[in-house]
Amino acid sequence: MSVQPALHSLAQDVPHDRLYFEDGNLVIRSSEDVERKATLFRVHKGVLALNSSVFAGMFTLPDAGRDVQESYDGVPLVKLTDSAKDLEGLLSVLYDPG
Q1: Is 0.70 surpassed by the pTM of this model?
Q2: Residues 28-50: tens digit of each pLDDT
Q3: Is the pLDDT of residue 96 over 90?
Q4: Helical ranges in the chain per DSSP H
Q5: What sign has the CA pseudo-torsion 93, 41, 69, 2?
Q6: Burial class (CB in 10 A: 0-12, 13-18, 19+), 28
Q7: What is the spatial distance between Cα 59 and Cα 72, in angstroms, rounded to a whole number?
Q8: φ, ψ dihedrals at 6, nearest 5°
Q9: Which of 58 and 63 is assigned the larger pLDDT?
Q10: 5, 21, 39, 66: which could join 84 in a potential S-S bond, CB 3.0 to 4.6 Å?
């Protein structure tokens, strides 16, 4: 996964119907689809860090740009280049491993 530069407006972003938790402390934004819509996933940093060394490392980086850090719905926003389908698959496994 790579972080995508902040080039897009959030006007056409849609929260995922199942993987958008009100108590989540991070929003992940997928890449845009052919209709220029992206999916938002509000998840928990702890769940991601526990299951992914990539996310764990990302969360331990210093907050050098804290004043310019983007947020959505009151929590930090991370924009990824992965499709909504790919992120849904990954997050579904983490949140419902059965």
Answers
A1: yes
A2: 999 999 889 999 999 999 999 99
A3: no
A4: 45-51, 53-59, 84-95
A5: positive
A6: buried
A7: 17
A8: -80, 85
A9: 58
A10: 39
For residue 5 the two structure tokens come to 């530069």
CA dihedral 21, 24, 27, 33 (to 10 degrees): -20
Q: Looking at residues 46-64, what average pLDDT do you find?
A: 85
Helix (H) or strand (E) holding 16: strand 13-20
Task: DSSP letter for 62, please.
Answer: -
Beta bridge partners of 13: 38
Question: Which residues contact residue 80 at a Cβ distance below 8 angstroms, ignoring those fewer than 6 apart?
Answer: 1, 2, 3, 4, 28, 29, 30, 31, 87
Identity of residue 64: A
Q: Please identify which residue in the block is written with the tokens 């790919």.
A: 86
